[in-house]
């Protein structure tokens, strides 16, 4: 059975790695939870929410989780039952951070006393604070990646690899925002709920988490603006390169046009063309026209029209 329990005085923290029939039977036997909540914990990807009941709260939180293989940010769901003398955390898929927090509280007496010496609401605050603060590392890595991409762009890299990197960075920023946004309102609402295990003194603690999430949101806004600006910059540089190539090809085509026309005329079998019977003068005419075109190209290049 994937159930682990820590006790400190009257307070009990139950951590469940995954929900199966045995774990579900444990919850039904020991707690009087609403059947809709028990149905919710059996399915993943629930919308973040708070359900308030007379004797307990049911909460669904999402935390950003970095996947190294796919280089994407996905939500990791944690369902929570919060009551007067208990806190139950239910994970959908194993979370290394959650596991570390639980065993840290279990093995470290000082941490256990600090986290569980008050009521279950304070324990909830410590868990949420730790999990949300741990997401800062993901955000910092995203910032470093954006800076690296920016340096590559201004170093001359505007190929498909850079465009793909920008797309990955933009996807991760949007994914992070999509996860964090509902949590801001969830924590803000949590600070206004009044229960025996959520007294007025805890409002300051949950407001602190809400402020931290707002700071993350502000950083994400900055990253989003940076990515949008870099995307516009890359498009401008690529368009400039394309226009330059088109300009060169246009000049080449226009430069060859007079020579092509002249060669077409003298390629006809007409006896009365000027210098038709003097090959030297005809070649001089071609060379003179080529020299004139070359001089025009050099003048245009000197004036930076090309």
TrEMBL record:
Compartment(s) where it occurs, according to its Swiss-Prot or TrEMBL record: Cell membrane
Spell out the molecular function terms from Gene Ontology: cobalt ion binding; cobalt ion transmembrane transporter activity; magnesium ion binding; magnesium ion transmembrane transporter activity
Indicate the transmembrane segments per the record. 245-268, 280-300
Has UniProt tagged this entry with the keyword RNA-binding?
no
- What does the entry list under GO cellular component? plasma membrane
Q: Name one Pfam family in it.
A: CorA
Q: Which InterPro entries match?
A: CorA_cytoplasmic_dom, CorA_TM1_TM2, MgTranspt_CorA/ZnTranspt_ZntB
For this UniProt record, the keywords arranged alphabetically read as follows:
Cell membrane, Membrane, Transmembrane, Transmembrane helix, Transport
Question: What is the membrane topology here?
Answer: Multi-pass membrane protein
Keyword Protein biosynthesis annotated: no
Membership in a protein family: Belongs to the CorA metal ion transporter (MIT) (TC 1.A.35) family.
PANTHER family, alphabetized: CORA FAMILY METAL ION TRANSPORTER (EUROFUNG)
This protein's name: Magnesium transporter CorA
């Amino acid at each position: 059975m994937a159930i682990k329990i820590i006790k400190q005085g009257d307070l009990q923290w139950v951590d469940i790695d995954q929900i199966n029939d045995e774990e579900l039977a444990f919850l039904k036997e020991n707690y009087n939870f609403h059947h809709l909540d028990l149905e919710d914990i059996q399915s993943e990807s629930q919308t973040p929410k708070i359900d308030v009941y007379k004797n307990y709260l049911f909460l669904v939180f999402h935390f950003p989780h970095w996947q190294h293989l796919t280089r994407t940010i996905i939500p990791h769901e944690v369902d929570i039952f919060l009551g007067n003398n208990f806190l139950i955390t239910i994970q959908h898929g194993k979370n290394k951070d959650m596991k570390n927090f639980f065993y840290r509280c279990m093995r470290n007496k000082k941490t256990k006393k600090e986290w569980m010496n008050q009521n279950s609401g304070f324990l909830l605050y410590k868990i949420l604070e730790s999990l949300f603060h741990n997401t800062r590392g993901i955000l910092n890595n995203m910032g470093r990646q954006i800076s690296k991409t920016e340096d590559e762009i201004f170093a001359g890299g505007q190929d498909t690899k850079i465009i793909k990197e920008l797309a990955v960075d933009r996807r991760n920023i949007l994914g992070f925002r999509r996860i964090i946004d509902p949590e801001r309102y969830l924590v803000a609402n949590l600070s206004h709920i009044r229960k025996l295990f959520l007294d007025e003194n805890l409002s300051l603690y949950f407001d602190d988490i809400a402020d931290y999430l707002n700071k993350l949101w502000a950083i994400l806004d900055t990253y989003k603006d940076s990515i949008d600006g870099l995307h516009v910059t890359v498009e401008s540089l690529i368009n400039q390169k394309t226009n330059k190539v088109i300009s060169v090809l246009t000049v080449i085509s226009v430069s060859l046009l007079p020579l092509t026309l002249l060669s077409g005329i003298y390629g006809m079998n007409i006896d009365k063309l000027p210098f038709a019977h003097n090959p030297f003068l005809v070649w001089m005419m071609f060379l003179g026209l080529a020299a004139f075109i070359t001089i025009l190209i050099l003048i245009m290049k000197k004036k930076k029209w090309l």
